[in-house]
Specification:
alpha/beta, 4-stranded antiparallel beta sheet, PLP-dependent aminotransferase family protein (chains A, B), homodimer, pyridoxal phosphate binding (chains A, B), PyrdxlP-dep_Trfase (chains A, B), transaminase activity (chains A, B), transferase (chains A, B)
Chain lengths: ~450, ~450
């Protein structure tokens, strides 16, 4: 690793093109999550690692009939190239989806994309010169950190607590960076049911975050794939609802419908959206007409709000089981108790290392994502992300029991050799190393 | 425009984020082709502008039944995230497709993408630092020039004639650039049924091109969407067939099946393919499982070779009609007579400007793509690309008649005011301004 936490250029003499890669290619390295996909695919492993939605809960017949209808009524259009911005009908329907979170936008400013990941990539491509700073929560989405690195951004984390991003920490971080003459391009934030932290930005903090960014002329990139998947109260209104000009908003059908279509979107201020369309056309010409039309037909035909309610029920039950099992089997750890989304963030005593522990966990047939994946600066060693979205409740119970075997084995080992009990460690003030006080 | 032909940063005071864009964003400008999509969609206009395949010739029922089968037998897999490299079954089938052009690769080295455009984007992202040189034919594919600009490459054109890229011109261009200390990253080439030039790289030139690149350690990026759409003789073996380690090969189902699925691929040397997968995962996580599985099922079920034969028949007839109509109505112009693909490249007398003429053409209800779209350096003013892939033979006849009205009107006007006949102009030796000698 270089001093700023970016992996050094990989490659070797076996690659004749080694000397020819762009500098940015050095930011491409296999993430922990990627390596885990292979592990998680073995059926005997309970994977608490991935972020796969439980698509088996979908009304499959309705999706098939949506496809048939699209092909029967508009086959040649569905099979053809489309507009780079995406099909107008779907963009209209996306406005209805966003209205549920207080957003009132124009269909002109919606750009559909190959999953919201592509929109994230394109916004980064539009704004980031090498060395520019992107602010992100500590921890943050592993896939975003990967994109930011691939454009040679410096990701600077901002502390969060159980109420989400801390405004005062944001203010101080900006002042500190500005004092160093650094160029801050945007704040990347997941306000609702955070991946991986599982917390939600408090309603009263939202205007304050926006005001801080506005004063400092920092764009907000609001990533909200889980907003509609709340377990109790709906999430507060989106940041975009409060500030149409200062926010690029990213949405997705991957969690509320299905990721296999790769349909997401961005809602951007008009001038940004103009450039975003050009960037999208450059990258892929146009998103899949067929995928967009099937999603559109599904939205027109299905009671999609009720389907999202069904997903909520499934995920809430799984989250409850996971939190209960953690309390039963791993009471010496701390964890967040999310009100929505897919993830619980678990903090272990400081002497444990989740990445080093992973092979032992896989041997015990349970997988998770090590906390270091969610930091650009090497933090997160004694944290992990557990996802409850895909495994059944029974699998979750088994998985947590297996995880307890591994963690307790590690702690026993440390106890034996160090002669000091792990529970005597004082909690750290950092979110990475200690959970928010009232969550567990 | 700046001196190197790159448009200056667009934007204005109405965009509050104007000062925040990355430098590369200045390379994003609306292409001629993009503006024409809007025009071409008006039903009264005969569009000879776009590159839309004639998807109505597809066996629609078979595609519907492929979808149904995928959903019935593997619904949850089709709706889920997949691997970043693409599904193995499809990658195996892609080997069969490429074998038709003499390519023998490993399934491990195939990466599927959101259309081959995405693979083009990712390869460029992997290799290009700002200021690096990409060599490309003169003219070259407008969408590639757009991608290259978006990564701040300098595109340097290499002359071609009716046998394709000229080896001696390639050698001289490389020597000239090396003499200036420029860093050449790759040669981008469309060897078969070139877009827009309509010519094919002669078989005997292929080993020579490869040898020149090998000696100069220049990667070849071979873009071959049209290779199987030959009208008479099949195209010579692909460059990739002759040099597995020096070529990244791009293929697509957009022209042989349908662009609406957005399924293309890259076949790359092993080390490059490794980075390509990481870049793809960063950009979109994974390509659409559903799209890939439908294409895979179609390939397994349909007689896809016969379907490609049908496409060949349709396109050959349309090309014949276009060339015949050009001979009848516009004998004073020159054009290429392609042996496959989608496009005829038309060269007008030097005093005509195809971009300036376009509004008049649209008023006459015919559209084409001005030649300047296919050059990074402002050339191509008196050339245009006519596509015969989408309009019917009747529409092509009408379109060429309308085009003749416009061209002849322009020539009359010039004749009247200049007092000199347009046909007295000597032909230029440049491919851009004069056609290959034996083609018309």
């Amino acid at each position: 690793m270089t001093t700023d936490g970016v992996p050094e250029r990989t490659g070797n003499n076996l690659d004749p093109w080694y000397a020819n890669y762009a500098e940015r290619a050095s930011g491409l390295s296999a993430s922990e999550v990627r390596a885990l996909f292979a592990v998680a695919s073995r059926p005997e492993v309970v994977s608490l690692a991935g972020g796969m939605p439980f698509v088996s809960a979908l009304p499959q017949e309705l999706i098939v009939s949506s496809m048939e209808k699209v092909m029967r009524e508009q086959g040649p259009t569905a099979l053809q190239y489309g507009s780079g911005q995406g099909i107008p009908e779907l963009r209209e329907q996306i406005l209805d989806v966003m209205a549920l979170e207080g957003i009132h936008g124009s269909v002109d400013n919606v750009v559909t994309s190959t999953g919201s990941q592509q929109a994230l990539d394109l916004v980064t491509k539009l704004f980031i010169d090498p060395g520019d700073v992107i602010l992100a929560e500590a921890p943050s989405y592993v896939g975003a950190i990967g994109v930011f690195r691939s454009y040679q951004a410096n990701v600077v984390h901002v502390a969060m607590d159980d109420q989400g991003l801390i405004p005062e920490a944001l203010r101080q971080t900006i002042a500190h960076l500005r004092g160093q003459g650094r160029r801050i391009k945007f704040l990347y934030t997941i306000p609702n049911f955070h991946n991986p932290a599982g917390v939600t930005l408090a309603a009263e903090r939202r205007p304050e975050i926006i005001e801080i960014c506005r004063q400092n002329e920092i764009l907000i990139l609001e990533d909200n794939p889980y907003g509609l998947l709340h377990f109790d109260e709906p999430a507060p209104d989106a940041l975009r609802a409060l500030d149409p000009e200062g926010v690029v908003y990213l949405g997705s059908f991957s969690k509320t419908l299905a990721p296999g279509f790769r349909v997401g979107w961005a809602l951007a201020p008009h001038a940004v959206r103009e450039k975003l369309i050009l960037a999208a056309e450059s990258a892929i010409l146009s998103p899949s007409s067929f995928s967009q039309m099937v999603v559109s037909e599904y939205l027109a035909t299905a009671d999609w709000r009720e389907q999202i309610d069904r997903f909520r029920g499934v995920y809430r039950e799984r989250k409850d089981v996971m939190v209960e099992a953690l309390g039963e089997h791993l009471p010496q750890l701390s964890w967040t108790n999310p009100n929505g989304g897919f993830y619980v963030w678990v903090t272990m005593p400081e002497m444990l290392d989740s990445k080093q522990m992973l092979p032992r966990a896989v041997k015990e047939l349970v997988a998770y994502t090590p906390g270091t994946a969610f930091f650009a600066d090497g933090r997160g060693r004694h944290a992990m992300r557990l996802s409850f979205c895909y495994p059944t409740t029974d699998q979750i119970r088994v998985g947590i029991r297996r995880l307890a075997t591994v963690v307790n084995g590690e702690l026993d080992l440390l106890d034996t050799f160090a002669g000091t009990g792990p529970l005597s460690l004082p909690p750290s003030p950092d979110f990475d190393s200690a959970p928010p006080s009232d969550l567990k």
